[in-house]
Task: inverse folding
């Protein structure tokens, strides 16, 4: 961040309550997450860094996609973000089977089935995800570290961004060869 290479950071604050957050995000601790994200957002603003902060909240059915029922700390964090998106649970790049899955179409009407993209991927193109051990993966749907392209403890963010490993994903996806990538082959893509 001190190098000015980070222009946006996105946080996943799922479920809407501390208890449900910890249930959905195994091994995550709400109190620590809340304090760290709040500190980061306030520090970024006070230090006049031009970093956009985004949040995504996955809300399982039948919870409403609004703040009316959420824990006050969730609302507090959401108000610190430049943008906050609420959405439904998805299939994590084909890693999780869901009832009425949009990817397979099982249990869905034809009009509700997702049309898979033939080329490219907005997630791989626009993001890199830092994992707790320092690994950097190319996709937020990467639950099993299949798409690790570097480690921030060993390489600069710029080197990872320009790495041959990341370039391989971009090139194969752009050429329409998603099936050749273990991480991407079953993804519904975005």
Result:
């Amino acid at each position: 961040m001190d190098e000015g290479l980070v222009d946006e950071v996105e946080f996943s604050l799922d479920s809407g309550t501390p208890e449900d957050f910890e249930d959905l995000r195994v091994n995550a601790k709400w109190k620590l997450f809340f304090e760290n994200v709040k500190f980061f957002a306030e520090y970024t603003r006070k230090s006049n860094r031009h970093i956009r902060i985004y949040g995504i909240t996955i809300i399982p059915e039948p919870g409403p996609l609004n703040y009316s029922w959420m824990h006050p700390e969730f609302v507090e964090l959401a108000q610190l973000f430049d943008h906050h998106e609420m959405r439904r649970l998805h299939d994590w790049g084909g890693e999780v089977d869901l009832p009425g899955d949009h990817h397979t179409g099982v249990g869905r009407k034809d009009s509700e089935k997702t049309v898979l993209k033939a080329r490219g991927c907005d997630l791989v193109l626009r993001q890199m995800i830092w994992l707790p051990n320092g690994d950097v993966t190319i996709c937020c749907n990467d639950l099993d570290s299949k798409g690790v392209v570097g480690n921030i403890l060993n390489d600069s963010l710029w080197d990872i961004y320009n790495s041959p490993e990341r370039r391989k994903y971009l090139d194969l996806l752009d050429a329409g060869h998603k099936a050749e990538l273990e991480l991407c082959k079953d993804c519904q893509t975005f």
